[in-house]
Amino acid sequence: MRALNRLSAIAVKKLAPGKYADGGGLWLLRRDDGGGQWFLRYTIHGRRREMGLGSIMEVSLKEARDGADKWRAVARAGKDPIKVRDKEKREAARNLHLLVDIAKDAFESRKAELKGDGKAGRWFTPLELHVLPKLGKVPVGEIDQRDIRDTLAPIWHSKADTARKAMNRLSICLKHAAALGLEVDLQATDKARALLGKQRHKAENIPAMPWSHLPAFYATLKDDNITHLALRLLILTGVRSAPIRHIHEDQIEGDVWTIPAEAMKGRRDATTEFRVPLSAEALAVIEKAQEFQRDGYLFANPKKGVISDMAMSQHMKRAGLEYRPHGFRSSLRDWLAEATDARHEVAETILGHTIGSSVERAYRRTDFLDQRRDLLERWASHVTSHVGKNYRARVRL
């Protein structure tokens, strides 16, 4: 029996799930899902270790054998292949000296902790639009406060929030570079802020339609198209636009919509799902939206993905309104305060806000679902008071 090269390229593609030895410590793990992983078993300093060599989708049998040969030689020299490879990665990382490379590397390392891998929140956008065009090709160690000041000065007051985000992202990039072992000025962003001065721009609240005007507006959303349906559901639930746009039929059970934790912006308890009670009107809207669903997404874009973030805003602009979709959350909150006796914690929970300290939340075992259901049913009655009974029948999925 051969000690090495026991497998063949054809056999690798046809093997059933399990572990298979190619010889010399090289193994193939085939998974139930059809994928597979190469790994090398070796013993160093009396300790048995396993080193991943890549998936069979990316690494061929020949490449796996070449890699095994390389790392077996390292082990014979008395060095731990895993530690040697990690050192090589660190040394390669130190060569990522341009800001554009550092920024991309910093973004990649943070994707897992960002909502939607950082795409929904556009983490990289402020850097991409306002920093990298001027400083991207500059070695990160050479960037100082004057460079940052000159880069962000054009938007420091006119686009204050964007400039603030760009400055914060740049600070993260400098810290990332320092963690890679590069010499950078970690105080460069603070010094740049001092040079730029206090921002004059005042944050403006998103225009919100008075809750008394909502029935008349809701009555105009009479077309059963995606934009009208999405706006209706946004108004009826008080949920932010992103979860609305990404609502999936698997998230709905009976008259409860469960939004995944990672989709809930602004919640400190980011591991907790959020349940939204659905009024009869909301369920009827969802039933209509199912006619447009694709891959389970109710508000699918006709071309690709889901309805865009701008679709609902553009509809309101075309209607000549100063209000924006996000403002309907304020409309609902004002209605709760002025037209109901809803307790503060119940009203805030309807909007998905985190209430109280971590200790208070630990002892609170309710999300006020039944109370919220009653209030949202009353809210639906208010906003549909000019509509008639077109969508009043309770429908369960």
TrEMBL record:
Source organism superkingdom: Bacteria
Q: Which CDD domains match?
A: INT_P4_C
Quick one: a GO biological-process term for this protein?
DNA integration
> Keywords in UniProt for this one?
DNA integration, DNA recombination, DNA-binding
This entry's Gene Ontology molecular function terms read: DNA binding
Query: Where is each Tyr recombinase domain found?
Result: 204-376
- In Swiss-Prot or TrEMBL terms, this protein is called Phage integrase
- Recite the lineage of the species: Bacteria, Pseudomonadati, Pseudomonadota, Alphaproteobacteria, Hyphomicrobiales
